[in-house]
Design goal:
The complex is a heterotrimer. By secondary structure, chain A is an alpha/beta fold. In chain A, 38% of the residues lie in helices and 26% in strands. Chain A is built from eleven helices and ten strands. In chain A, the strands form two sheets. Chain A has a six-stranded mixed beta sheet with strand order 6-7-8-3-9-10, sandwiched between helices. The longest helix of chain A has 16 residues. Chain A is globular. Chain B has a single domain, classed as ABC transporter involved in vitamin B12 uptake, BtuC (Orthogonal Bundle). Chain B contains eleven helices and four strands; from the N terminus they run ααααβββααααβααα. Chain B starts with a helix and ends in a 15-residue tail after the last helix. By secondary structure, chain C is an all-alpha fold. Chain C has one domain. Chain C is built from 15 helices and four strands. In chain C, the strands form two sheets. In chain C, strands 1-2 form a two-stranded antiparallel sheet. In chain C, strand 3 and strand 4 form a beta hairpin. The longest helix of chain C has 27 residues. The radius of gyration of chain C is 20 Å and the shape is globular. Classes of the chains: A alpha/beta, B mainly alpha, C mainly alpha. Chains B and C meet through helix 3, helix 4, helix 9 and helix 11 of B and helix 6, helix 7, helix 13 and helix 15 of C.
Chain lengths: 239, 305, 337
């Protein structure tokens, strides 16, 4: 198991946003988290990346616990998070955005191969290389955000809501790119709002609601169920 | 006083305030903390010029060194002091993820501590010191007579701003500082080391403070353990007015404050002159009311205090 | 513990009882010096509790409250000081003030109200700023008034000292105002306004969404806080008998802030406890600076150690216990919600 999370509890102040959450991500898998707004998906991802500290539970990456490691250490160990909202450095150019990310592995000079591959995945970035990142469209920004994360040469890429605010053609492109990324050996953990897309695309899916996992399973098995809507929005189901 | 000298004074003071505001803006950019101790770092640099003594007259220490060595030493000392405050006071606080209010009070405590230490060593009596006396003479520039010290101040400021600009744009560490200033967590999510970036920001900020020490003491010739306070207040106000979170805004805000302050001095009637600072800061509070994001804030979205 | 019906009166009642007891004990010892030290501590309690009315409830750090102590103290001096030679120190005073001899209590209330008016005006603008900008603006406010008062020689004796203020502040006068201030703080804290402001402190966005007009709530707390801080300044002036603009500057700002932080930024009990703790430390250090004779030897620290030590203490508290000695709790009540 590349990522093992056990009994995770994360609180905002005294309020638990995530409770009793346990899941795994195997090497080479694509795992999706689905659930309505406020379910705790982003919160969980932020904890995996080290931005939030869990009140309870353990997160193990490659069998080693994250336990309070600094964010940049977790990144150096191989987990890259593309957070919700893209968060590109709008006042810097595309090139500079990528340069910052490449610093971890030696800078744009040393990581030429990775840079080429990444630009190969997202050719539009090559075109916009010197533009201020703030001028890119949402779809282009999303590609930049993913490209940046890839430059840190992660083993696990965590993406939070990649399709949010994107035109359909970009969503297609982004998910296609995910497949290509996976084939290059990167494991993917993706937060999605669309159950349909998650089931079509992932190996395994976890349903999160009100901070708890209410359903999990392989995509193929879950796709056969007819009560997914209920699970997503309201009634409990334990399988 | 000639119009030209007035203008020279204005631009000179504007430059000093711009440097101070920039130093404060750098730290605010990466840490979202107003470093109250910045003015006291300037004060520290000034006092480093003389022998630590409680006596009325303080013989020059580093102040007696040859020019280049003196400048290098003061800049290095203040930069080092700044990094020390980061390492021993602000970093432990960051580790505990304290909130903004606590950071603010801490920087105020550091400021008070630095003042108390200098007060302890040197006593509260102002001391005079003379460095670069050659700067006090007048020169003729394109047919106009102005003080050399003003020329040097403006030139030094321009050079520093240029150098810093290049560093931030081109050098990797500079890039990291900019990224951290824009979105600190995101920068860390890309592997940027928080401690390194913040230490660098403090070092740069300290270096700028060192330069201000030299320029300020060259012009005024007086040491006082509270001399950093009006400079710091000018710096904060310049930063806030210029637009917090923007380095360019800080520079412009500081500059505008210095220029306005000097010109106001000349325009105000005699009796009100000593209160010119009061007018100015009162004015500033008004500005903040109508344009809280600052006068020169960039149009970029998400720029909040 | 405390019976339910008594809960609304806590922590005020508890704090007042404890302080009154301390005063009684000290008074009974007949030690004049000790009474003096306690009186000074009580004056600081007035200031720090006043400060906490604003800072604790709003979460905004104020570096400018000493402005109101300054304004208040001098306004009180204008009405009461220097019997007969007032015009010598402050020749610019208007006729009706030059010879006025206002009884001290109305004088102090009037003086505090003047400071409060300034607070209201400045607050109209400053309270609309974000917390950081507001903190800076408040420091600027202090700077502004310090500059004005230092140069307004005709009204304030400028940078010279003003002597001859009536020394009416003894242990009981101070305690009296402490009681009033603590009661006021308690009333505000328990009021709907206090509740709203604390909601905004926790989550400004949510508070706004709930219909709370944040700047107005801040302004209310600020104005009340300014009034009592001014009283503190007035008491200080009439305790010392001398005034100088330099008294109301960074030292006092640091001290009052340190007292609040050490005790606990968020609690009324903290304000009182912190003040007593810091006053005790100061007292101890002052004694050390003057020198202790133990056995045949003298234990003495050099002048200036007081400030350095206090700064270090504050930093240590900020790093190791930022919530202060008391944290969130209040005397007599269960742990905070």
């Amino acid at each position: 198991m590349l990522l093992e999370v056990d009994d995770l509890e994360i609180r905002y102040g005294r309020v638990p946003a995530v409770r009793d959450v346990s899941f795994t991500v195997g090497e080479g898998e694509i795992v999706c988290f689905v659930g309505p707004n406020g379910a705790g998906k982003s919160t969980t991802m932020l904890a995996v990346a080290g931005v939030l500290h869990p009140a309870k539970g353990t997160i193990r990456f490659d069998t080693r616990p994250l336990a309070g490691n600094a964010i940049e250490t977790i990144v150096a160990n191989g987990i890259a998070l593309v957070p919700e909202g893209r968060r590109i450095f709008g006042r810097m150019s595309v090139r500079e955005n990528l340069a910052v990310a490449s610093g971890l592995r030696g800078g744009l000079g040393r990581t030429g191969d990775t840079l080429d591959r990444v630009l190969g995945l997202f050719p539009i970035l090559r075109e916009r290389y010197q533009s201020p990142a703030g001028f890119l469209s949402s779809g282009e920004q999303q590609q930049l955000a993913i490209a940046r994360a890839l430059l840190t040469q992660p083993r696990l890429l965590v993406v939070d809501e990649p399709s949010l605010g994107l035109a359909p053609k970009y969503v297609e492109l982004v998910f296609e790119t995910f497949s290509r990324i996976r084939s290059e050996g990167v494991t993917l953990l993706i937060v999605e709002q669309s159950v349909r897309r998650a089931l079509k695309f992932a190996d395994r899916v976890y349903f999160l609601r009100s901070g708890r996992i209410v359903l999990e399973g392989s995509a193929s098995t879950l796709a056969k169920r007819t009560d997914l809507e209920h699970i997503y929005f309201g009634e409990e189901s334990r399988s | 006083m000639s119009q030209i000298q007035l203008l020279a004074d204005a631009v000179s003071l504007g430059s000093i305030y711009a440097l101070v505001a920039l130093g404060i803006g750098l730290i605010f950019g990466v840490m979202r903390m107003i470093n109250f101790a910045h003015g006291d770092l300037i004060m520290l640099g000034a006092y480093a010029l003389v022998v630590p003594t409680a006596a009325d007259f303080a013989p020059p220490l580093i102040g007696a060194w040859p020019a280049v060595a003196m400048v290098a030493a003061i800049i290095a000392i203040v930069a080092f002091a700044a990094v020390l405050t980061e390492r021993f006071a602000f970093r432990p606080l960051r580790r505990r993820e304290v909130d903004g209010a606590t950071l603010l009070i801490s920087s105020f405590a550091i400021s008070y501590l630095l003042q108390s230490i200098v007060l302890f060593v040197h006593t509260g009596r102002p001391k005079s010191v003379s460095i670069f006396p050659e700067l006090m003479r007048q020169v003729e520039l394109a047919g106009i007579r102005i003080s050399l010290v003003d020329v040097v101040t403006v030139a030094a400021t321009a050079l520093l701003l240029l150098a810093l600009g290049v560093f931030l744009r081109r050098a990797r560490p500079g890039l990291e500082v900019r990224a951290a200033a824009e979105d600190f967590i995101m920068a860390r999510l890309l592997g940027v080391k928080a401690d390194r970036v913040i230490a660098l920001a403090f070092a740069l900020s300290g270096g700028l403070a060192g330069v201000v020490s030299l320029l300020y003491v060259s012009k005024t010739g007086v040491l006082d353990f509270q001399m950093g306070v009006p400079l710091a207040v000018a710096g904060f106000v310049g930063t806030v007015v210029g637009g917090m979170g923007s380095l360019l805004g800080a520079v412009l805000g500081g500059f505008a404050l210095g220029v306005t302050s000097t010109l106001l001095q000349a325009l105000l009637p005699e009796t009100l002159q000593p209160s010119r600072d009061a007018f100015l800061y009162g004015l500033v509070i008004l500005v903040l009311f109508f344009r809280p994001q600052g006068l020169f804030a960039p149009r970029a979205t998400g720029e909040r205090i | 513990m405390i019976p339910r019906t008594m809960r609304p009166f806590f922590p005020a009642l508890g704090l007042i009882a404890v302080l009154a007891a301390i005063c009684a004990i000290v008074h009974l010892t007949g030690n004049g010096e000790l009474e003096g030290i306690l009186t000074e501590a009580l004056i600081y309690i007035v200031m720090v509790v006043a400060l906490s009315i604003f800072v604790s409830n709003s979460g905004v750090i104020s570096f400018g409250h000493v402005t109101f102590a300054l304004i208040g103290a001098y306004a009180s001096a204008w009405q009461t000081c220097c019997s007969g030679i007032r015009g010598v120190f402050m020749p610019g005073l208007p006729e009706f003030l030059l010879h006025a001899d206002v009884p001290v209590i109305p004088a102090s209330v009037a003086a505090a109200l003047i400071a409060t008016a300034v607070a209201a005006l400045a607050g109209l603008i400053i309270m609309r700023l974000s917390s950081v900008a507001a903190s800076i603006a408040l420091l600027s406010l202090l700077f502004v008034f310090k500059t004005i008062y230092e140069n307004w020689s005709s009204m304030t004796a400028g940078q010279s000292s003003l002597v001859g203020l009536p020394l009416y502040v003894d242990l009981w006068a101070a305690l009296g105002w402490v009681v009033v201030t603590i009661v006021a703080a308690q009333i505000y804290m328990s009021s709907a306004h206090g509740l709203r402001l604390r909601a905004a402190r926790e989550d400004e966005v949510a508070a706004r969404a709930a219909g709370i007009v944040v700047w107005r709530e801040r302004l209310i707390a600020f104005v009340i806080s300014a009034f009592f801080f001014a009283i503190g300044g007035i008491l200080f002036g009439h305790f010392l008998g001398t005034l100088a603009v330099s008294i109301f500057w960074l030292n006092m700002t640091f001290l009052t802030l340190a007292m609040l932080v050490v005790g606990g930024l968020r609690s009324l009990t903290g304000a009182v406890v912190g003040t007593l703790a810091v006053a005790a430390i100061r007292g101890f250090l002052r004694a050390l600076e003057q020198g202790f004779h133990i056995g045949g030897a003298t234990l003495q620290v050099p002048q200036g150690m007081q400030e350095i030590t206090l700064a270090v203490v504050l930093l240590l508290i900020l790093v190791y216990r930022p919530q202060g000695i008391i944290g969130d709790r209040e005397l007599g009540l269960a742990a905070a919600k």
